[in-house]
UniProtKB/TrEMBL annotation:
GO terms for cellular component: extracellular space
Origin: domain of life: Eukaryota
Keywords: Glycoprotein, Hydrolase
Molecular function as annotated in GO: phosphoric diester hydrolase activity
UniProt cross-references to InterPro entries, sorted A to Z: ASM_C, Metallo-depent_PP-like
Native source organism of the sequence: Entamoeba histolytica HM-1:IMSS-A
Spans through the membrane: none
Protein name: Acid sphingomyelinase family phosphodiesterase 3a, putative
């Protein structure tokens, strides 16, 4: 990373697993506890050259707000939906739009498993759906903050998180845990979960 910083190059970090806890399971840590905070510290140390982190593993369309301990540096981890049908979720795929060192938006496509014809369909454009300028850290922090006071916005996000499979209802505990997962991926911040 030091080399890219010296050369004024931007990077995207790709990983199978992002730090944090799964929204979908009771206290399902995705990494060993001792590595979550260390990885976030390393990633945010290079926030000036890091466009974002792109992950999978959870088979969900979600994100993580990874911040330095002083909250001055932020990198967003985008978790992409999955092609497989794990837990009956619709197969999905994402196309990112990256310009000028910022993830401008992404578009998701999916196959509706309830239909007999297998056909890829447009699902949504992130900036249009959530009324965002781009997918920069400030925009994604703003989205999470808006979901705290706007349950309808959260419910739209929640349906997309599961590729519009319409399989699961989200009660108040679910709402809280979703926002906790977005905003608090550090092991030291996980006391906001209500299992």
């Amino acid at each position: 990373m030091d080399k890219y910083k010296e050369e004024n190059k931007k990077v995207i970090i790709a990983a199978h697993i992002c730090p944090g806890v799964s929204e979908r399971y009771n206290w399902s840590e995705q990494m060993y506890n001792q590595y979550d905070d260390k990885l976030i510290d390393l990633i945010t140390e290079y926030s000036d050259i890091t466009i974002g982190m792109i992950c999978g593993h959870l088979h969900l369309d979600t994100y993580r707000i990874m911040q330095s301990k002083d909250k001055k540096k932020t990198v967003i981890g985008f978790l992409s939906p999955s092609l497989d049908t794990y837990l009956g979720i619709n197969p999905s795929i994402r196309l990112y739009d990256i310009k000028g060192g910022v993830i401008q938006s992404y578009v998701n496509y999916y196959v509706d498993l309830n239909k007999t014809e297998v056909q890829w369909k447009f699902n949504y454009n992130a900036t249009q759906e959530y009324n965002l300028k781009d997918l920069s850290p400030n925009s994604m922090i703003s989205l999470a903050q808006r979901m705290h006071s706007n349950r309808t916005l959260h419910d739209i996000w929640y349906e997309h998180m599961r590729a519009d499979s319409h399989m699961y209802q989200c009660d108040d505990k679910c709402w809280n845990n979703n926002l906790c997962a977005l905003e608090h991926p550090r092991n030291s911040e996980k006391d906001c979960y209500k299992w």
